[in-house]
Design brief:
The protein is an alpha/beta fold. The chain has two domains: about 180 residues, no CATH class; about 240 residues, Vaccinia Virus protein VP39 (Rossmann fold), CATH 3.40.50. About 45% of the residues lie in helices and about 10% in strands. It has 18 helices and eleven strands. α1 packs across α10, α2 packs parallel to α13 and α3 runs antiparallel to α4. The longest helix is centred in the N-terminal third of the chain and has 19 residues. It is globular, with a radius of gyration of 24 Å. The two termini are about 40 Å apart.
């Protein structure tokens, strides 16, 4: 599809919100319905051809008394996800009864695989159903999102004479549409957009700062990419794209595995959904998130080391709750933040509780590879306070000292002012 076609589809979906939700939700809350419904329609369209195979496999497994069915059902669907309900979204359009539609729609949602359930739970989408049903808007919403006017399926739509009516929508195109919707909703909610949306120019700069200095040293093989504050996942996917392109330019063949952690439930759901929509099911399984998954207090990858790490962690944000969970400063025993250095077996990297941004950097330093020719490379955004906050012997100063004495710091790049949403503060990319 052309960029014009993709933009037309994004505009169509955006228009559904105004048509169906205007009297039900304030504009800032349209995303609570439109984003998960877009995800559902794409997954539904992808699964249409394998629906019978999945239902047959489900019946076979149930008859045999097999409890662990996930792997077999993924294979039957030929995807990283599946749906075992007897319905498709198109089937639900014909429901005359509002009560029957709501019941069948819930059954349809319940049929999705656990990874999709996780996305729906973090979107809190089921909470929207009674409101939509009561206003008799659920049927209209389903009808519009499954309209023949748009094609969210990877398969092309043909006219009765066999000529092409609508081209198929590949994973990259679907990802582009979803990212455009996210961007528009972030602009609608601009008071919080900066928390989970890093401008693409900044992301590409960070990726190039990480990859270009070692481009000639990147060999064919597998590389692990990590973002401990992954938001909607853009930093991971852009970094993967640039690494793959560099490998091609240098005649190398690389495979990548993406890992991320995100505490905000909705942005985690968006990230995981985006990867599924782009056909990166394995990567989606490596994204961990939700309110119980703070990177600082509950590291999801304690034994992992990564080749490339990029992040835009929250700055100026209190981590007092996490600190208390971890035993406070005196009781801290996390090996990422209390280390052995310069003859001190309890060298503390624990920062003031009012700002945890440098702990995200310390977390990455604990995940660096030490025994590979390339080692690990890091790019992380900070505000100016990371350059000077903390007296000698305090956590911030100790982190800087640890970095300098290990000769890890390559450069610090000052970014233009007003580059990030809703803030004019100075920001810097640390490259290690």
């Amino acid at each position: 599809m052309s960029n014009g076609d993709l933009n037309w589809i994004a505009n169509y979906i955006w228009g559904i919100a105004d048509d169906v939700l205007r009297d039900l939700y304030v504009r800032g809350k349209y995303r609570d319905v439109i984003l998960p419904m877009t995800v559902l329609r794409r997954l539904d369209a992808v699964l249409e051809d394998s629906k019978k195979a999945v239902l047959d496999m489900k019946a076979k497994l149930d008859k045999a008394g097999v409890v662990e069915q996930d792997v077999a059902l993924r294979q039957a669907a030929d995807q990283a996800f599946y749906n075992t309900s007897k319905f498709t979204l198109r089937d639900l359009r014909a429901r005359a009864s509002r009560q029957q539609l709501e019941a069948d729609f819930r059954a349809y949602l319940d049929g999705f695989s656990p990874n999709v359930q996780d996305i729906l739970d973090n979107f809190e989408f089921r909470n929207q159903i009674p409101r939509l049903s009561k206003a008799d808007a659920l049927g209209t919403l389903i009808e519009k999102i499954t309209s023949p006017d748009i094609n969210l399926s990877p398969a092309p739509v043909k006219n009765t004479d066999g000529s092409l009516k609508q081209p198929g929508l590949d994973n990259h195109g679907m990802g582009t549409i979803f990212e455009e919707l996210i961007r528009r909703f972030n602009e609608e909610n601009n008071e919080e957009a900066g928390e989970h949306w890093t401008p693409r120019d900044a992301v590409r700069l960070m990726a190039k700062l990480v990859f270009l200095p070692v481009a000639d040293d990147i060999q064919s093989g597998t590389y692990l990419l990590y973002d401990g504050a992954c938001g909607t996942g853009g930093m991971l996917t852009v970094a993967e794209e640039i690494l793959q392109q560099l490998a091609i330019e240098h005649g190398k063949k690389v495979s990548t595995h993406l890992y991320g952690q995100e505490i905000n439930a909705e942005t985690y759901a968006i990230c995981k959904a985006d990867l599924l929509l782009k056909g990166e099911g394995d990567a989606a399984d490596n994204i961990v998130g939700g309110p119980e998954h703070s990177t600082l207090a509950n590291d999801a990858f304690p034994s992992r080391e990564f080749d490339f790490m990029l992040s835009n962690p929250p700055y100026g944000k209190s981590w007092k709750t996490d600190l208390e969970r971890m035993g406070a400063k005196k009781g801290m025993r996390d090996s990422r933040f209390v280390i052995e250095h310069a003859g001190d077996p309890e060298y503390s990297l624990v920062t003031r509780s009012s700002d945890g941004q440098m702990l995200f950097l310390a977390n990455k330093l604990s995940k660096m590879k030490q025994d590979t020719p390339l080692g690990s490379r890091i790019a992380e955004v900070h505000n100016g306070s990371s350059l000077f906050t903390g007296d000698a012997g305090q956590g911030e100063s100790n982190i800087r000292r640890w970095i300098i004495e290990n000769d890890w710091l390559e450069t610090i790049v000052a970014l233009p002012l007003n580059m990030f949403y809703n803030t004019g503060i100075a920001t810097y990319v640390w490259v290690l």
